[in-house]
Amino acid sequence: MLERGDVANSWRRERWDSLRLLTPNWQTRLPGYRYDGVDPDGFMTMAAVIEFVSRYAVATSAPVRIRTTVTSVRQIEDGYRVTTDAGEFQCRSVVLASGACNLPQVPALRAEVPSSIESLTPFDYRNPSQLPEGGVLIVGGSATGVQLADEIQRSGRRVTLSVGEHVRLPRTYRGRDVLWWMDASGVWNQRYDEIDDLTRARKLPSPQLVGTPERITLDLNALSDAGVELVGRLSTVRDGRALFSGGLRNLFALADLKMERLLDTFDEWARASSREEFDRPERFEPTRVPLSSRLGLDLRNGEIRSIVWATGFRPDYSWLDVPVVDHKGHLRHNGGVVDAPGLYAIGLPVLRRRKSTFIHGAEDDAREVVEHLAGYLAR
After folding, report:
1. Torsion angle of the four alpha carbons 317, 319, 321, 325, in this order, in degrees rounded to the nearest 10
2. Phi/psi at 170 (5° precision)
3. Taking all residues of the chain, what is their mean pLDDT, rounded to a whole number?
């Protein structure tokens, strides 16, 4: 096992200070290992996640070579040659476990932002104190965007949140965590080969959730109540002005409709299971559309001093010298079986199930990927 940094490196180096897992502690589990603390319904801090992963490496005696950066994976006659900054390896099979969040995905229009504006990605951001005094524009309304908008607004800075397509979820539903419902109802276990539009499913933004001791719901209504200004998707930056698309009403209505359909799925499962311990079905206030929403923002007048690009992440396969990456930079694979003999992947969105990118989603995927890998080696 080759790791470019230390064990749990991305959790150590590429997360902001206050971040907690979105998944409750009872859901934090890996093959043969799980959370066993006193707060199963809580949410791990980054320090706790680092400790959890590090203890897992020790408990499993994982043969990890730390601080070993892979610079090339190349196909050879009887397998692969893996080149690192610590030497070369030759093997019959390779599993790519580098994930899908290696680099921030920042739109090209960032280059048009005036130089007086400080630009950060979630990899750069640690806490509000590093931002210059003044207004902050956060671009992106998924999990990262809403969490940073809430934290920065609470620090006393005025926040404008640019919202695009998003997935709205309540933190709790009918007395249980919403992710309990995703698990129990079977939604999270839906297989990749059962999904009608797999390409779209793999591109869905992360749900608007936050893990807090209070188990609060952090949606756009909560942010509006806290004073965050909502604007549409950032479409361009022209002559120092950020221009936003209209149509917030339709955008909010679509997210609300999808949430209602998911809650209907939970209700149907609860009825079919004949279990009586749940609270009554709930429905939530629609996302409130601002009475007026700005379509433009002057980035030169000092109102906005910094921009945080919470616009998602992308994989980095610059070191993969095998022709298995499409023109958009995504790996060509079928449930983790990559389009090259003996090459596999784990930890990508909806790899084999909807839960694939979550910590607890690794076990089922890994079991099936390894089964295929073992068959390949046996042949």
Report:
1. 0
2. -80, 150
3. 96
The pLDDT of residue 168 is 97
Calpha distance 339→366 (Å, rounded): 18
Mean pLDDT confidence for 348-357: 96
CB crowding 346-367: b at 16 or more within 10 Å, else e: bbbbbbbbbbbbbbbbbebbbe
pLDDT tens digits for 139-152? 999 999 999 999 99
- Indicate the SS3 state at residue 121: coil
Same fold, 9-102+314-378 and 104-313: yes
Pairing of strands 94-96, 343-345: parallel
Confidence of residue 217 (pLDDT cuts 50, 70, 90): very high
Residue with tokens 């923002």: 297
CATH architecture of the domain formed by 9-102+314-378: 3-Layer(bba) Sandwich (3.50)
Long-range contacts of 270-277 (CB under 8 A, 24+ apart): 270/174
DSSP code string of 195-244: -TTHHHHHHPPPPB----TT-----HHHHHHTTPEEE--EEEEETTEEEE
pLDDT band at 155 (very low <50, low <70, confident <90, very high): very high
Distance of CA 131 to the CA centre of its chain: 23
The CATH H-level (homologous superfamily) assignment of domain 104-313 is FAD/NAD(P)-binding domain (3.50.50.60)
Residues in the chain: 379
Nearest to 18 by CA among 99, 102, 122, 103: 122
Dihedral angle at the C-alpha atoms of 301, 303, 309, 311, nearest 10 degrees? -100
Burial of 260 (0-12, 13-18, 19+ CB in 10 A): middle
Residue whose entry in the numeric block shows the structure tokens 């539903």: 173
pTM above 0.90, yes or no: yes
Number of H helices, E strands in the chain: 8, 22
Place of tokens 């690009």: 309
296 dihedral zone (left: phi>0; alpha: psi -120 to 50; beta) = beta
Neighbour count for residue 189 (Cβ, 10 Å): 16
